[in-house]
Amino acid sequence: MLFKYRSNPVISNMEKIDNVLDFVNRNRRSFQLLIGVLIALLIGVQEVLAQGNNTEGFIYGKVYTRGNEYQGQIRWGKEEAYWHDHFNASKVENPYAKLNDRYRKEDEDNDSWRDIDWRISSIWEDRAGTVHQFGCQFGDIQELRNYGGSRLSVKLKNGEEIRLSGSGYNDADARINIMDDELGKISIDWDRVEKVVFMPTPKQ
Known about the structure:
Elements: H1 9-26, H2 28-53, E1 60-65, E2 68-76, E3 86-91, H3 97-110, E4 133-137, E5 141-148, E6 151-156, E7 161-165, E8 176-180, E9 184-188, E10 193-198
Antiparallel strand pairs: 1-2, 1-10, 2-8, 3-4, 3-7, 5-6, 5-10, 6-7, 8-9
């Protein structure tokens, strides 16, 4: 009587798995390199897509001139275009001036030689007056008002209002470029601007 041999399917499948594992093990470095390249490509594509569609980092708001208003993405002069960029000017008011005058008067009353300041620290004192610089990110500003002649004020998002002088700072004399949502790109001289109201940048 003849017996027909039948292969065990379990053993056959195990052999196939062993062969695959052996192949993967022998080419492990190549597979690791391939997976690394694919992951890097995937991350790069996602970043490019995110940068192409994300405009929330750009300055956005309304620019009011005499009789007109424009709304859109804003570029301050040829420099600032992002919320984290800084607006610079100088403070008009010095809240520490009264304290300085009081201490100076006390020193004068205590010195026996009134015309000479014998304190060693006086070498480093600013006798010509101190300019208090103002600087903050555009993202912290709610509104800027232009009063002309380098005079302006800033209202911060926390409600604080500060009077400023733009003399000597190009931010307060910059040409404002705005990509108006309806009219397209418009360039406005600072002396034509009455105020700038900053708004959340819309998602696109």
